[in-house]
Amino acid sequence: MGHKGEYREEERLKNPSVWQRFLILAGTGFGLGYSPIASGTVGTIWGVVIVLALAAVGLTPVMLLPFIAVALVLSALAIPVCDTTERYLGRKDDGRIVADEYMTFPICVIGLPLVPWVLVMAFLTNRFFDILKPPPARNLQNIKGGTGVVIDDVLASAYSLVLNHVLYYVIRHILAA
């Protein structure tokens, strides 16, 4: 890697195959990563769509083991998607790469009911922790390639998940009182 997180010319992906072009398209959130404002936040919208799509086929976040499995598979798949996109764009964790945001978002809702306010809460807490990057997330994003792009988002989603469960419990008990 060259100066300031940029790839040296010989490391860049110059002539992507059809499959690599698809990965790059997915890596940039099918265009949402090109948002001029808050591309990560805009790209995370796909994460909400993924959670709703999973629910539409009968897989909800309260189905713990299957939902955890899907969340982990999506997070693992995000690594080659982000790696390919990063090599193509030529810059470490380029802001246009948003697959790390949306493919790790399902982690935020594991074990929670799929109701609108919970989705909004999960979206907001996820963005908060992804932007804040509490330790060790900030340091882990220095890992080279797709793993470094994705790992901080996995942790941000895990932090979000914990806070979401606390907030859900507190809010439910306040509303029940």
Low-confidence stretches: none
**What overall geometry do the principal axes of the alpha carbons give?**
elongated
Mean pLDDT: 94
What's the domain count? 1
Rg of Cα set: 17 Å
Tell me the structural class.
mainly alpha
How much of the polypeptide forms β-strand, as a percent range?
under 5%
What does this structure look like?
This protein has one domain (3-176). 63% of the residues lie in helices and 0% in strands. It is built from 8 helices and no strands. With 177 residues, the protein is an all-alpha fold. Helix 1 packs across helix 4 (64-89). It is elongated, with a radius of gyration of 17 Å.
Explain briefly what this protein structure is.
The chain is mainly α and 177 residues long. It contains eight helices and no strands.
Itemize the secondary structure elements and their pairings.
Elements: H1 18-27, H2 39-43, H3 45-56, H4 64-89, H5 99-104, H6 116-132, H7 137-140, H8 145-176
Q: What attributes does this structure have?
A:
elongated, 177 residues, 8 helices, single chain
